[in-house]
# Entry
Amino acid sequence: MIIGFYTIDNLVSFLLQADKTYCFVTLFLSENWYYQFPAKWGVQNDAMIFQTRSRFITEKRKVKSMNILVCIKQVPESNKVEVDPVTGVLKRNGADSKMNPYDLYAIETALRIKEQEGGSICVLTMGPVQAEKVIREAFAMGADRGILISDRKFGGADVLATSYTISQGIKSAGDFDLILCGKQTTDGDTAQVGPEISEWLNIPCVSNVSRIVELDGNSIAVEMDMTDDIEITKIQFPCLLAVDKDIFMPRLPSYVKKQETKDREITVINFSNLKDQDEHHYGLNGSPTQVQRIFPPEVNAHREMWSGTAEKLTGQLFHKLQELKFI
Ligand SMILES: Cc1cc2nc3c(=O)[nH]c(=O)nc-3n(C[C@H](O)[C@H](O)[C@H](O)COP(=O)(O)OP(=O)(O)OC[C@H]3O[C@@H](n4cnc5c(N)ncnc54)[C@H](O)[C@@H]3O)c2cc1C
# Structure
């Protein structure tokens, strides 16, 4: 038995040259479709006999080209972020900033998927004009397009307003099969933006993704690291994944790519480009929370695992929050 992949053009010459009599033939018909069948051949009375007893099997090629969006954030070099005591807004002097380290893993994940399956990668950041720097860094790693969501009206946004603004930006940017976020940032550190974007876009989300198990044209199966357990989840596209560090080792930006992309245009999305023109949904106006104090959390190893329908779990969570006097 020979396993091989041949186009119709070279199949016959291969069969004549080969000294084996069985093979597994795959005929590529287009980018997405192929016929696959086991076959037997031989030479009889100077004529080549080619037989297949199996019926043709038609399959869709495993994966389509992916349209991937990666959300990246510019963060201060230092993780000591202060809070303005009057406004409750995080103080960033903006002088020394870098790409949020967790977002490097998200970019690397997108690059690996693109290298394997084809497609295109767009990176998106919400921030001041200087945040363009992290988009250029992503270009030097291999991203194809960049979007900067920037407007003074978005300043002072908390997590809710940030995720809403980003989701509005995504809606005006186009359709994406897969949205990738880092697990968390090194400044705000809430790990809430990714899941909240997925809620606003009404698409499924998996957080703490530590490995891609399988990918096909309609869905992706991933490992979710739950600290004590690993859960494997399969979700349909379009979806959002918040990836953990170590999913892949991020590559270094390439000097050649940096030079090649130094003049590449970056799409800027501001308030006027968004569908929702209600200013109360953005920036400080759209932020119901205020930072009072920043401190390292206490380590609490106590965990409860619940299972059941979404309806049952929602009720259970509601009662738990009441019991803990959070609501
Ligand atoms: C009351 C309040 C006021 C604030 N004021 C300001 C302010 O004036 N200026 C300011 O800069 N911040 C401000 N912040 C912080 C800001 O809300 C958070 O930085 C932002 O919501 C992101 O949250 P996070 O850093 O916890 O991200 P996480 O949820 O930890 O991030 C997870 C992932 O989401 C994606 N992501 C997060 N943020 C962005 C982004 N901006 N663009 C693209 N992708 C992103 C990344 O993939 C990231 O890895 C304020 C926060 C509060 C609560």
Observations:
- Residues 71-73, 88-90, 92, 100, 102-103, 106, 124-127, 155-159, 162, 166, 181-182, 184-185, 187-194, 287, 289-291 surround flavin-adenine dinucleotide (CB under 6 Å).
- The longest helix spans residues 101-117.
- The chain has two domains: 2-60, 66-286.
- The chain is about 25% helix and 30% strand.
